[in-house]
C-alpha cells in the first residue's frame, strides 16, 4: 500500500487527485450538458431523477449534500421537476418536517429515455481504453470514493 504518494518538496497541483478529479468532473459536466440541448430536461434534472431512481437520495437535503448545491438551487430544480410531473413531494407521516421526493412513472421514463445520451458520451470517452482499463478505472474511482467516505463517515 502507498503510504506517501505525494511529498511537499515536489508536489504539483496538476498531478493531485483533487485537481484531476475536479477538473475531469467540470469537463464532464460541461460536455454532457450539451447532450441535453434537445431534451425536455437539463443535465442537472437528469442527475436528480437518476439519484431518486437509484435510491441514492430521498429528500432535497440529500440532494444538496450529494450534489454540493445550495438549498435554493435544489428547490428551484425540484420545483421544475414537480411542475413537469416527473417527481412528487410527499410529507413524511412519521415526521412532518421531512418532505420526501418520489420519482413518478413519467420521471422514471424520462430519465430512461435520456440514458442513451449519457451512455453514448461516456463510451466515447472510454473508446481508447481497453475493457480491463475501463473496469480498473471504475473500480479505482469507487475505491477512492469509499476511502474518502470512510474517512469522513459520509453516506452512500
For the structure shown, list the relevant keywords.
6 helices, 156 residues, 60% helix, two-stranded antiparallel ribbon, mainly alpha, Arc Repressor Mutant, subunit A
Q: Which residues form runs of ≥5 with pLDDT under 50?
A: none
Oligomer: single chain
Alpha-beta classification? mainly alpha
How do the helices and strands follow one another from N- to C-terminus?
HHHHEEHH
- The CATH class is Mainly Alpha
Main sheet overview: 2 strands, antiparallel
Q: How large is the radius of gyration?
A: 18 Å
CATH architecture: Orthogonal Bundle
Number of strands: 2
Tell me the count of domains.
1
Helix count, DSSP H or I runs of 4 or more residues: 6
The CATH homologous superfamily is called Winged helix-like DNA-binding domain superfamily/Winged helix DNA-binding domain
| Gap between N and C termini | 24 Å
Shape summary? globular
Indicate the percent of residues in helices: 55-70%
Strand content: 5-15%
Average pLDDT number? 93
Question: What order do the strands of the largest sheet run in, or round the barrel if closed?
Answer: 1-2
User: The CATH topology is what?
Assistant: Arc Repressor Mutant, subunit A
Kindly summarize this structure in a few lines.
The chain has six helices and two strands. It has 156 residues and is mainly alpha-helical.
Amino acid at each position: 500500500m502507498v503510504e506517501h504518494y505525494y511529498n511537499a518538496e515536489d508536489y504539483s497541483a496538476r498531478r493531485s487527485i483533487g485537481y484531476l478529479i475536479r477538473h475531469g468532473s467540470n469537463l464532464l459536466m460541461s460536455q454532457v450538458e450539451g447532450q441535453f440541448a434537445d431534451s425536455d430536461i437539463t443535465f442537472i434534472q437528469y442527475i436528480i431523477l437518476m439519484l431518486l431512481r437509484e435510491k441514492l437520495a430521498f429528500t432535497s437535503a440529500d440532494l444538496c449534500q450529494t450534489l454540493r448545491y445550495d438549498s435554493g438551487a435544489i428547490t428551484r430544480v425540484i420545483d421544475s421537476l414537480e411542475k413537469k410531473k416527473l417527481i412528487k413531494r410527499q410529507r413524511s407521516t412519521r415526521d412532518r418536517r421531512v418532505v420526501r421526493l418520489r420519482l413518478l412513472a413519467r420521471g422514471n421514463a424520462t430519465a430512461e429515455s435520456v440514458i442513451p445520451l449519457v451512455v453514448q458520451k461516456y463510451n466515447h470517452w472510454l473508446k481508447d481504453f481497453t475493457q480491463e482499463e475501463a473496469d480498473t478505472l471504475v473500480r479505482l474511482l469507487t475505491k477512492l470514493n469509499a476511502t474518502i467516505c470512510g474517512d469522513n463517515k459520509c453516506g452512500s
